[in-house]
Amino acid sequence: MKESTGIGSHLEALPSRTISDAVAFRAAMRHFVGSVSVVTTWHGDRPWGMTINSFTSVCADPPTILICLNRKTVTASHVQNTGRFAVNLLSQDQLHLSEICARPAADKYIDEHVLSPEDASGPSSMPLLRDASVVFECRAVEQLVVGSHRIAIATIESIHVLVDRPPLLYGQGRYMRGIELEMRA
Ligand SMILES: Cc1cc2nc3c(=O)[nH]c(=O)nc-3n(C[C@H](O)[C@H](O)[C@H](O)COP(=O)(O)O)c2cc1C
Question: Which Pfam families does the record associate with it (predicted)?
């Protein structure tokens, strides 16, 4: 696994006027709406989850995704040390779980939300959340440090399709439901 601090060091070197730009950046980013996921890892021998919305597809050949994690989080430390994690795309029914896994500095053990091995659609080595739409089991191939965050670029080792339910979305500082727009000819 390669690790680079190149981009991060470059950003830290920018002049201080960018501090006020960060306020404008956060305000602008409130308009970005994305789906909500929980990154699962093993904490000791127990499943642990962290809510994110920074999941994105990178490319299909080879199947690759990326996530961005605040470096101070327990999950970022796990990813740094092991390179192994799963991304669980949440359905609308899992809003409460998203809240549990977003509480800063609180325990995020999620034993009761994880599928038992018999109920999983195939063998897995990472915790899979019951009622997630899809779970990607991932192995980081490259990690970058950019300012406060760690970007993990990862290949997909397996995909579990669990339930076909509407996705949980987040934007404008709150959870949202998707609204289907009429197709226009
Ligand atoms: C909808 C939503 C999306 C989030 N997305 C991210 C994210 O992409 N990256 C991140 O580092 N934190 C994100 N957070 C914040 C983390 O969930 C939260 O800071 C983290 O669980 C704290 O973990 P810790 O207790 O290990 O510090 C998000 C929170 C919410 C509510």
Answer: Flavin_Reduct
Is residue 24 assigned to a domain? no
Closest among 183, 40, 184 to 111, alpha carbons compared: 40
Does a structural domain hold residue 181? no
52 lines ligand 1 (CB under 6 A): yes
| CA-nearest residue, atom 19 of ligand 1 | 104
**CATH number for position 65:** 2.30.110.10
Question: Separation of 125 CA from ligand 1 center, angstroms?
Answer: 23
Q: What pTM was computed for the model?
A: 0.89
In a domain, 156, yes or no: yes
| CB distance 69 to ligand 1 below 6 Å | yes
In a domain, 117, yes or no: yes
Question: If 0-12 CB within 10 Å is exposed, 13-18 middle and 19+ buried, where does residue 126 land?
Answer: buried
Q: How does pLDDT run across 114-173, given as a tens digit for each residue?
A: 998 777 777 889 999 999 999 999 999 999 999 999 999 999 999 999 889 999 999 999
